[in-house]
Design brief:
The complex is a heterodimer of chains A (216) and B (169). Chain A is α/β, with parallel strands linked by helices. Chain A is built from 5 helices and 8 strands; from the N terminus they run αββαβββββαβαα. In chain A, 21% of the residues lie in helices and 18% in strands. Chain A starts with a helix and ends in a 26-residue tail after the last helix. Chain B is of the alpha/beta class. Helices cover 35% and strands 11% of the residues of chain B. Classes of the chains: A alpha/beta (216), B alpha/beta (169).
Chain lengths: 216, 169
Amino acid sequence: MSADFLAALRSRFPQAADRASADHPAVNVPLADVVAVLKFLRDEHGFDLLMDVTAIDWSEGANPRFTVVYHLLSTTRSGSYVRVAAPCGGNDEAPVAPSVTSLWPGANWHERECYDMFGIRFEGHPDLRRILMWEGYPYHPLRKDFPLAGIETELPGADVVEETGTKVVAAPMAGGPFVAASGEINLSEAEPRAKDESWSDRVARPDQTPLRQVKE
Amino acid sequence: MVSASTDYGYDSKVEGGVIVSRADAAINWIRTNSMWPMPMGLACCAIELMAVGGARFDIARFGAEVMRFSPRQADCMIVAGTVTYKMAPQVRRIYDQMASPKWVIAMGACASSGGMYRSYATLQGVDRIVPVDVYVSGCPPRPEALLDALMKLQAKVQREPSARRLLSA
């Protein structure tokens, strides 16, 4: 079932290479061909539904650092699902990939999320803005060099910042991630807790801004 | 509390119809028993908040059933759910738009402390942007817990020096 479109893809695009995958077939294609490959799969092999556009950050130093992955599903041929991966162009700070909003209008928000989280600029996107974080947020949180707790920065809304004096602070991980002790029978002791409880959301770590509580 | 008294009757015609009380007691009694909530439903806690408004738990028994979606008409903001940094300025602006006197209940772990969301996107407790009167634990809290929070807030309002604040305002 999957072999027919893969064989057709390979004969049409000899540059497409098999990609290791535990479940569905997957192919690696050069960035320049990705739109043509996706159009080919959509028009000639019934992959009419774009399930997801996502990306991989192979961390700093890797070349290419970012890979963009398109997930396709066929609603007419049961169980047909394929992933198409392409290494991003551009540089590490501003990777680029072609937008597929011309093929699937639904790619719009997927690409916006991808841009928001990884900073990949989709060329030809009609409205490439952040979708989850606010406009003006200076980081791309799913990059490998971004810590889970976040980085101290300004809260959106200058009037609210002025009134409350609050800012975006690194979340108090307090020795986390929080893991339950295995093998404990006493539930109150088996509760997930931090390894370092000397600081918390009430008591700041010495090198961090304390979480300010608004006064009445 | 406000109660009818016959001790102060000075005229047989109005005897028993005159009520003597402290201004604080009267004002607080009025405020306590018709506290209109502003449901700031941001996540799953809002489902429990809806249950509290429903027939089974029935927050109407405590005079707080009039959920107002306009901050101008609300007394008590119930922050029910995860407050993200993106949402935080809007929460603060809605709080600013409420007319005084106003109170805030932080419902559930997320609103109280960020809860399980120790991450770059989540405000670590709504008390960082608005003053909170009552915190409710739970993830999400039982409807009874929110009713308890409302009763605790009412007890807190009963102790407020309302008359002095009105005169000094």
